[in-house]
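Protocol step 4 of 5: obtain the predicted structure for the target chain.
Materials: sequence only (see below). No template structures provided, no constraints applied. The aim of this step is simply to have a reference model before the mutagenesis design in step 5. Sequence pasted as it appears in the construct record:
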Amino acid sequence: MTNSRSKINTMKITLIVGFLLMALKFLAYYLTQSSAILTDAIESIVNVLAGSFALYSLYYAAKPKDEDHPYGHGKIEFLSTGVEGGMVTLAGVAMTFKGISAFFNPHDLKNIDIGLGISLFSGIVNYMLARILIKKGTTLHSSTMVADGKHLLTDTWSSVGLVVGLIIIYFTNLFWIDYVITIGLGIFIAITGFKLVQESIFNLLDKADYGKIEHLISVLNTKRNPSWIDIHNLRVVKYGSVVHVDCHMTLPWYYTLEESHKEVDDLDKLATTEFSHEIEFFIHADPCLPKSCSICEIHDCKVRKNDFVKRLEWNMSNVLPDTKHTI
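Step 4 output (structure tokens):
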């Protein structure tokens, strides 16, 4: 709950600042009549709309599990990322066409120095917000905050390009550069939005997160107990900030239910300790078979059927299939 409150408070501040920057950018457009600045201002509308939906998604994701949502409400964060990406993509496409049409309807610019100052200030503020969101979103495992941070980082680079262009226009009076900047920013923003949509789709379709799986396997290899004869059929699914892990663990067939439960609980605690975010383990305990003896490290086993051959190092290729291992 503390993490959720921290996410929501951070997003509230981001939304308020985004609204103020949007008003500032439209003031800059009014004073300069620059198409590039208008492009930047329109993107700020997207920032505010996307930030509003992101804030709602964080509220919704923080709701406790219920009968209709036994895994919680965290996946709405992935939907939020997709909505934001869609908005960004459409804004980028619109900006590109705006820049192209401006070539056929050119107009002079004015008060370039004021527009330059406002754009520079907006870029700095957006950069600071973006770094905070990405860092905090990564720490709290919030795809919504990371996506919003990446969006604001895109806005920052847009502002950098805009500032450079305005400086050139200020000293050369080559006003057509304004339209080129508009087209370039539009394409850049559209590509960023498309990547956010792609990431959202992958998460909603439960694409395997191999980075997390490899990390988990490394932890299990390093700190496993001898009685954990085998791990297989391992799967990792992310629901917002919560990671769900399913796996089968092979234990000695002669263990009592209480002993098996203790081993399952030890594995659960190990993963929970090693991972900084919320994690839920669903472990299915399997009894060992005679073929398991070749990799079983319980050397004082009194019912061993076959000799121990060697320790089996778990890796991506042998942990993911639903097959008990042997040598």
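Step 4 remarks: The chain has two domains: 2-204, 210-319. The chain has a mean pLDDT of 80.
Proceed to step 5.
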